[in-house]
Inverse folding.
């Protein structure tokens, strides 16, 4: 053994210290693994399990959220379609109402136009009769002045 130590340029005291430190290291390793490493590894495993569980919950919640979003979009689409139908009905009713008002106004305008035309014809006839009577009177005055009558 001394020959092996000489190869590495070590003394017997160095060899003893190497053995003591190796035993101390193994003892310390065993003690610390029981006191520190096991609880630390248990915490790491628990954290990883919680993370994996959280990942599954997140995936489940994400799927539910996507389903709700699709449902929400479908409801919005249905509401829009219903709104479009209601709007078209209201527009159609408004057009019919406007057309009825326009027809009533046209009838009233036509009737007023007919009354005005009739009134103008009557006034024209009255003016013609008045002019005829004035012509007759003027022609008689002219004849009287000329001495023909």
């Amino acid at each position: 053994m001394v020959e092996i130590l000489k190869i590495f340029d070590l003394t017997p005291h160095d060899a003893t210290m190497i053995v003591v430190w190796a035993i101390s290291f193994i003892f310390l390793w065993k003690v610390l693994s029981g006191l520190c490493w096991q609880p630390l590894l248990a915490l790491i495993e628990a954290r990883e399990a919680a993370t994996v569980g959280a990942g599954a919950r997140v995936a489940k919640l994400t799927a539910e959220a996507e389903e709700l979003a699709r449902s929400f979009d479908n409801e919005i689409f249905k509401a829009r379609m219903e709104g479009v139908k209601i709007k078209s009905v209201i527009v159609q009713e408004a057009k019919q109402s406007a057309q009825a008002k326009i027809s009533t106004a046209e009838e009233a305008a036509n009737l007023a136009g007919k009354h005005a035309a009739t009134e103008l014809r009557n006034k024209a006839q009255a003016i013609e009769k008045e002019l005829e009577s004035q012509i007759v009177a003027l022609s008689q005055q002219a004849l009287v002045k000329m001495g023909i009558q």
Remarks:
- The two ends are 186 Å apart (CA to CA).
- DSSP finds two helices and no strands in the chain.
- The chain has a mean pLDDT of 89.
- Residues 12-146 form the longest helix (135 residues).
